[in-house]
Amino acid sequence: QVQLVESGGGLVQPGGSLTLSCTFSGSDFSIYHMAWYRQAPGKQRTFVASAFINGNTNYLDTMKGRFTISRDNAKNTLYLQMNSLKPEDTAVYYCNARRSGYSRDYWGQGTQVTVSS
Fold this sequence. Notes:
Layout: E1 3-7, E2 10-12, E3 18-25, E4 32-39, E5 46-51, E6 57-59, E7 67-72, E8 77-82, E9 91-99, E10 105-107, E11 111-115
Parallel strand pairs: 2-11
Antiparallel strand pairs: 1-3, 3-8, 4-5, 4-9, 5-6, 7-8, 9-10, 9-11
């Protein structure tokens, strides 16, 4: 069974940086497309960025230039480097995995990111 565990969240001042990590276990990480989503208080969960098994990446337009998604297949880990953080980036950030060619989604428990002075 696939398990995802996020870490790295916390409180950061506006303009600061954080790096989130998602540790994958239970299957072959290299055949899963990976993504980050986030959910702000009172709002729906929304897509942030994805890292595909072929090495391609995709971002929500508003994240481009500030966030960088990456994966390390040797460490079974997904990352999200977040720079120039804004208060509106405050949310619970979730890691998502979907095996290539399949429709089932796996989710982590989320990690809280709070951007505030």
